[in-house]
Write a structure and sequence with these properties.
The complex is a heterodimer of chains A (359) and B (425). With 359 residues, chain A is mainly alpha-helical. Chain A has a domain at 121-357: Orthogonal Bundle (MetI-like fold), CATH 1.10.3720. Chain A contains 16 helices and 2 strands. In chain A, a hairpin with a 7-residue loop joins strand 1 (98-99) and strand 2. Chain B has 18 helices and 8 strands. Helices cover 47% and strands 9% of the residues of chain B. Chain B has a 5-stranded mixed β-sheet. Chain B has a 3-stranded antiparallel β-sheet with strand order 6-5-7. By secondary structure, chain B is of the alpha/beta class. Chain B is globular, with a radius of gyration of 25 Å. The chains are: A mainly alpha (359), B alpha/beta (425). Chains A and B meet through helix 5, helix 6 and helix 15 of A and helix 1, helix 3, helix 4, helix 17 and helix 18 of B.
């Protein structure tokens, strides 16, 4: 998840009512996170951030000529983006129609890779796993983040400390977290099972049951990203004018009523933003299962753990492309998956927008 | 004011652009390689060769400058990327045993070592290992660094508690078939309830596959993963699970299991001894090594290869053959637990000594004969990919209690699909 500051929707001020216009801005930072993945989303959202120049608009060529220093100033990002993101993304489209082992000759195979994909039960298993892990992580993550943000917003002391503390998990090395979680949840010798046994409860096979595996991965993601989302909510909360709260209190609203009738409606654009970002990144879980379930094994690496319950789609893609040297099939997997993410983002968008229209 | 701001902007832009360009270039250049004949680049991974032997090779070959890179991360992927351009490709590279088969279809990316002097050295090395790096038309693309002859590592103290034989020769004789081995496991588990026989059934399956002369795909590129030899291996592998002597360890807790006595035996390659002694230093002296039930098997073992773009293949092969001479392989065994591929090394003091971790047992008496008797099997480029579902389904049996027959059907169906994707008939 990119550490992009989210000033856009907050600064416009939800006081004027959370219109769809703001919501559209919220899509802006939906960039790819740095740890990889197909990263299809960036280009799509990138087009929306073209700065809206005030006043009269001269022809595009003249505008480029007049603002060349500014264009040049932002060019490094686009150059690097083109070389390391756009080109690979486009190249995978080409690859998805080829059979290629990485160094040999490519063979054009038409839609064959997609036909294989359609018939591949493991691909569908990985999609199911990914969706379950995404729901298991995103829902508690965003709810917790909102509660935490409201709590931190209401404290007067140590606010800087809380903010730093909230942000630290999101900048901690994911591999280190995964190794730590692996030790905590380990079946026979983990911390949690040791505690359970000490209070005479039976140990839970966290790392071998197909549901607890997903729960562990989701817990890990929740732990890592709750604070990040809380910081975003916090920024949104501080943009809500205090007069609104004051008026609510004057009318006799309690804390719960204020939370549900003032805070949540006014935060809606921010919530939409976090939902979109969490969808894009939450569906791209890869490192968590890769580190948790013996990726270095010589036989059957990156299988996603017992019962392949931790096999997310991106891990499956990685396995096909880099373990099996089946790059064409890998490309087909990520493109099919990209379309799925796009679909889910659109559904989310629709859902939240429909709610907004309600008076 | 206006002008100076503009200048400031321009300067900022230039700085930014330079930084961007530097970053862009920085991403592209990997560990150095060269096309000239005096500077040779050698890639290997940590522990892939003896660092001391490599350091000595630099001194020994004073005529060339040997630049070594210990490449971390996914070695095969980095090598694949490096091979795409002559400038980035190394002149000598390690290739892991599990990857060598997948490089055979692109043998033209490597020098045929028989053309640079390997021919006269070949008889000194294990023929079954050389075959793994030989294409069907006879090109040799890799020279073997090490092998993984397999054996049974067992806890002598726990065996004694259970009234089982403790002497390596006796264990080898009495636990010579898989069924004998499982029967001993049942007795062991009965006498010491916290102790299981095997860590997971995937390891049994891979051992049995290694004991055969056929794998998942035959020489005519036909899928044979649904045939009797695999089915028998599967049925045998599932037995410890049904007998309740399978520890079902498929996560990172193996280290803890091995040190607290949850595992009474380990079936694994010679290099696995190092894993055991690292994970369980407290069990020193309690372990012994016996023959693997059902005959010798191999797991792992890497190669050194010369990419076709190498600036000086003749010199590169001289370096390879020096690093992999029997004497230096014996040093590799001492330094990095690399089991030699030249049987002449088995008679050298580095290997014939007793190992205190195994109570002073001379483990070469088990591994040496096993190494020379390992059956030679054709390993197709797609073999690892096609075998993956079998291991996944065996894990499903352990994790979910999936019905073994259903798991077998699913494994075969998935393997067939992967085979089709990989162009196997």
């Amino acid at each position: 998840m990119p550490p992009t500051p989210v000033t856009g929707p907050a600064s416009t001020g939800p006081a004027s009512g959370p219109g769809t216009g703001h919501a559209r801005h919220a899509g802006r930072p939906a960039q790819d996170r740095p740890r990889g993945g197909p990263g299809g989303g960036s280009g799509r959202h990138g087009r929306r951030i073209r700065p809206v120049s005030a006043g009269s608009r001269p022809g595009p060529r003249r505008r480029v000529a007049r603002h060349w220093p500014q264009y040049l100033a932002i060019s490094p990002y686009y150059l690097i983006f083109t070389v390391f993101m756009l080109f690979p993304v486009l190249y995978t489209v080409y690859l998805a129609f080829q059979k290629w082992d990485g160094i040999g000759d490519m063979h054009y195979v038409g839609f064959q890779q997609f036909r294989f994909l359609w018939d591949d039960p493991i691909f569908w298993l990985s999609v199911r796993n990914t969706l379950v892990i995404w729901v298991l992580s995103t829902v508690p993550m965003l709810c917790l983040a909102l509660v935490l943000a409201v709590l931190v917003n209401s404290t007067k002391r140590l606010t800087a400390f809380y903010r730093v503390a909230l942000f630290i998990p999101s900048i901690t090395s994911l591999v280190a977290i995964a190794i730590f979680f692996g030790a905590v949840f380990s079946n026979n010798f983990g911390l949690i099972n040791a505690i359970l046994r000490s209070v005479h409860m039976s140990a839970v096979p966290w790392m071998s049951n197909e549901w607890t595996i997903k729960l562990v991965i989701a817990t890990l993601m929740t732990w890592q990203w709750t604070g990040y989302n809380a910081i975003i909510y916090l920024a949104g909360l501080q943009a809500i004018p205090s007069e609104v709260y004051e008026a609510a209190r004057m009318d006799g609203a309690g804390p719960a009523r204020i939370f549900f009738s003032i805070t949540i409606p006014l935060l809606r654009p921010i919530i939409l933003f976090t939902v979109v970002v969490s969808t894009v990144t939450g569906l791209q879980s890869f490192t968590e299962p890769q580190v948790l379930f013996g990726s270095e094994a010589a036989t059957n690496p990156n299988s996603g753990g017992p019962g392949q319950a931790g096999l997310t789609t991106l891990l499956y893609f990685y396995h096909q492309a880099f373990d099996n040297n089946d790059f064409g099939y890998g490309a087909a997997i990520v493109w099919a998956f990209f379309l799925l993410i796009l679909l889910i983002v659109l559904v989310n968008w629709r859902l939240v927008q429909r709610k907004e229209r309600r008076p | 004011m206006d002008l100076s701001r503009r200048r400031f902007l321009q300067a900022a832009v230039l700085t930014a652009a330079t930084a961007g360009a530097t970053a862009a270039c920085g991403g592209g250049s990997g560990p150095g390689g060269g096309k000239d004949s005096k500077n040779l680049a050698l890639w290997y991974w940590s522990g892939g060769l003896s660092d001391k032997v490599v350091a000595d090779a630099k001194k020994h070959f004073s005529g060339v400058s040997l630049k070594t890179s210990v490449v971390g991360g996914d070695f095969k992927t980095k090598l694949l990327t490096g091979l795409r351009a002559a400038q980035s490709a190394p002149d000598i590279t390690g290739v892991k045993g599990e990857d060598i088969a997948s490089f055979l279809p692109n043998a033209d990316r490597f020098i045929d070592l028989r053309t640079v002097g390997a021919d006269r050295l070949v008889p000194q090395y294990l023929s079954w290992k050389l075959k793994q790096a030989t294409t069907q038309d006879g090109k040799l693309i890799g020279f073997p660094i090490d092998i993984g002859p397999c054996a049974t590592f067992y806890r002598e103290d726990l065996f004694a508690q259970a009234g089982l034989p403790t002497d390596p020769a006796k264990v080898s004789a009495e636990l010579s078939t898989w069924d004998d081995y499982f029967k001993a496991g049942v007795e062991l588990h009965k006498a010491v309830p916290k102790t299981f026989l095997v860590n997971n059934i995937g390891s049994v399956f891979s051992m049995i596959i290694g004991q055969g002369t056929q794998r998942f795909i035959d020489e005519n590129n036909r899928f044979i993963g649904d045939q009797d030899h695999i089915r028998t291996a599967w049925t045998t592998a599932v037995k410890p699970y049904t007998l309740g002597i399978d520890a079902k360890i498929n996560d990172n807790t193996w280290n803890a299991a091995i040190s607290n006595g949850a595992l009474g035996t380990e079936i694994g390659a010679a290099w696995h001894a190092l894993d055991i002694s690292n994970a369980a230093p407290g069990t020193k002296g309690n372990w012994r090594v016996a023959n693997l039930p059902g005959g010798p098997s191999n797991l792992g073992g890497s190669f050194l290869a010369i990419p076709a773009t190498s600036g000086n293949p003749e010199e590169a092969f001289k370096i390879i053959s020096w690093i992999l001479s029997p004497e230096n392989q014996a040093r590799g065994f001492t330094d990095a637990a690399l089991f030699p591929t030249a049987p002449a090394a088995y008679k050298l003091p580095a290997l014939t000594g007793g190992d205190p971790f195994f109570g002073g047992q001379k483990t070469i008496e088990i591994f040496g004969p096993a190494a020379e008797k390992i059956p030679s099997a054709y390993e197709a480029p797609a073999d690892a990919a096609v075998s993956a579902p079998f291991f996944s389904e065996l894990t499903s049996i352990e994790a979910k209690g999936k019905d073994p027959d259903e798991a077998w059907k699913d494994a075969v169906a998935q393997a067939k699909q992967i085979a089709e994707r990989q162009g196997v008939k």
